[in-house]
């Protein structure tokens, strides 16, 4: 089934969408997670290494996509034979991953909104409102969501950079010294949580199908990844220089704590924190809308092959809503986040392996057929 | 008796989410379904004649016919 939609995503739009998808919860918690694991200020090195690895994975995904332009991975795998069943199984796994992922993002959002913005609004209501909003975005399809990303991402990036620039006066350079006091091995062991902060690249398996064959290149997407890597690195460094490593460990969301320290132009904006939270909500809204749309698309296109179905979005929202309230504490919410991240990483690897296996099998068959023809002549 | 009854009910529905969560989740789902259903119905009702599928098919057929006539 070749992609029938007329909309084509340009490379810049895809890069911006990647940035929008990656910038979610990780940006708020990464300095703490890294400080807890390393107990030194070397987290930024892990972020840089992870960024490089993720760029490699993006390159592999784009190379794979070049084998089946106009189709998504599941359509390519499920073309014929046993592949149909493998594609169905993969589709189920992706749905089982995306719905809890959506739930996790929604739950963290309710926690943050309750902590910093609306302390008397019940989380149930906050969550219902954000899910209704994302469902509306989903109803506008890929084009609608990508245009929202294009609109929001510049604001999000500007606010993060303002946050860092106006913290310069609070920074102490000595906090990130010495570099690598425990050697390189602990830094490598911290790659796992940093890689999780880059989860979201799985959207490429589905949305590269909307790109022209001539536009299927890895470097524009990797520029997007580079932006995220630089932002993560700077946020980790600025957190450690402003809050110190021990201070970052003691704070649940160090990036929000950074916003508390900021005072813009002699008190012109004294409380930067609500501004930052509002902008962060825009970022998480983008991520949630993409995840929800991916779940809905997979259910509609790859699982049940239905064109008109008003029930899918409702069911996805309902399940995400219920799953979001399973954890009872922030700690349990983060444990759920870890589980989701493991599932995501495993799915990306599995999809890549299955995709390249299918390409290999197809090439092998073609070669055999040509060889057979040669003999018969 | 009342306590025992409550205990049994708790045991049966113990795995269910809290009442508030369940009610809001169902409410959200119903709102989404109702709006989507309503909007698709309104869209169908307000479709102009040229937008209808059967008319678009007819248009394609007529265009093909005229093309083939012109060619011959």
Name the CATH architecture of chain A. Answer: Up-down Bundle
* Alpha-beta content class of chain A: mainly alpha
CA-to-CA gap between the ends of chain B?
91 Å
Largest sheet of chain A: none
Write the H/E string of chain B, N to C: HHH
What's the gyration radius of chain B in Å? 28 Å
CATH first level of chain A: Mainly Alpha
| Biggest sheet features of chain B | none
What name does the CATH topology of chain A carry? Amino acid/polyamine transporter I
Mean pLDDT over all positions of chain A: 89
The total count of helices of chain A amounts to 16
Question: Hey, which two chains have the biggest interface?
Answer: A-B, 21 and 19 residues
Calculate the mean pLDDT score of chain B and round it: 86
Give the strand tally of chain A: 0
| Strand residues, percent of chain A | under 5%
Percent of residues in helices of chain A = over 70%
What keywords describe this structure?
heterodimer, A: 377 residues, mainly alpha, Amino acid/polyamine transporter I, 74% helix, globular, B: 72 residues, 79% helix, 0% strand
Care to describe what's here?
The complex is a heterodimer of chains A (377) and B (72). Chain A is an all-alpha fold and 377 residues long. Chain A has one domain: Amino acid/polyamine transporter I (Up-down Bundle). Helices cover 74% and strands 0% of the residues of chain A. Chain A has 16 helices and no strands. Chain A is globular, with a radius of gyration of 22 Å. By secondary structure, chain B is mostly helical. The model of chain B has no long low-confidence stretch (mean pLDDT 86). The chains are: A mainly alpha (377), B mainly alpha (72). Chains A and B meet through helix 6 and helix 15 of A and helix 2 of B.
């Amino acid at each position: 089934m070749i992609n029938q939609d007329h909309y084509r995503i340009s490379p810049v739009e895809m890069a911006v969408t990647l940035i929008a998808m990656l910038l979610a919860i990780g940006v708020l918690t990464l300095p703490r997670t890294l400080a807890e694991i390393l107990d030194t200020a070397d987290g930024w090195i892990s972020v840089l290494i992870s960024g490089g690895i993720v760029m490699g994975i993006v390159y592999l995904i784009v190379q794979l996509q070049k084998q089946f332009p106009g189709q998504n991975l599941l359509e390519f795998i499920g073309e014929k034979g046993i592949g149909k069943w493998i594609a169905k199984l993969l589709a189920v796994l992706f749905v089982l991953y995306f719905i809890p992922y959506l739930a996790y993002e929604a739950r963290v959002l309710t926690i943050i909104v309750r902590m910093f913005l609306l302390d008397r609004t019940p989380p149930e209501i906050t969550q219902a409102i954000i899910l209704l909003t994302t469902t509306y975005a989903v109803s506008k399809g890929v084009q609608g969501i990508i245009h929202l990303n294009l609109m929001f991402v510049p604001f999000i990036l500007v606010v993060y950079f303002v946050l860092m620039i106006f913290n310069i006066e609070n920074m102490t350079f000595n906090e990130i010294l010495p570099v690598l006091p425990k050697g390189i091995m602990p830094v490598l062991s911290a790659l796992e949580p940093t890689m999780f902060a880059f989860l979201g690249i799985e959207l490429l398996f589905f949305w590269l199908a909307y790109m022209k064959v001539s536009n299927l290149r890895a470097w524009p997407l990797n520029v997007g990844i580079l932006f995220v890597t630089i932002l993560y690195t700077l946020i980790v460094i600025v957190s450690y220089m402003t809050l110190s490593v021990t201070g970052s460990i003691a704070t649940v969301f160090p990036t929000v704590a950074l916003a508390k320290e900021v005072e813009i132009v002699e008190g012109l904006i004294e409380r930067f924190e609500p501004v930052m939270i509002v902008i962060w909500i825009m970022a998480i809204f983008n991520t949630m809308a993409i995840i929800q749309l991916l779940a809905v698309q997979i259910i509609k296109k790859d699982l049940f092959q239905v064109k008109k179905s008003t029930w899918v979005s409702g069911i996805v929202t309902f399940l995400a809503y219920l799953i979001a309230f399973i954890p009872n504490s922030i700690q349990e919410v983060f444990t759920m986040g870890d589980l989701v991240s493991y599932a995501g990483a495993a799915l990306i690897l599995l999809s890549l392996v299955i995709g390249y296996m299918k390409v290999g099998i197809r090439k092998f068959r073609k070669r055999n057929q040509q060889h057979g023809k040669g003999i018969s002549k | 008796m009342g306590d025992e009854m409550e205990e049994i009910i708790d045991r049966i529905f113990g795995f269910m989410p809290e009442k508030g969560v369940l009610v809001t989740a169902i409410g959200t789902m119903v709102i989404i379904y109702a709006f989507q259903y309503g909007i698709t119905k309104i869209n169908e009702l307000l479709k102009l004649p040229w937008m209808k599928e059967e008319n678009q098919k007819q248009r394609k057929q007529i265009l093909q016919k005229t093309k083939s006539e012109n060619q011959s």
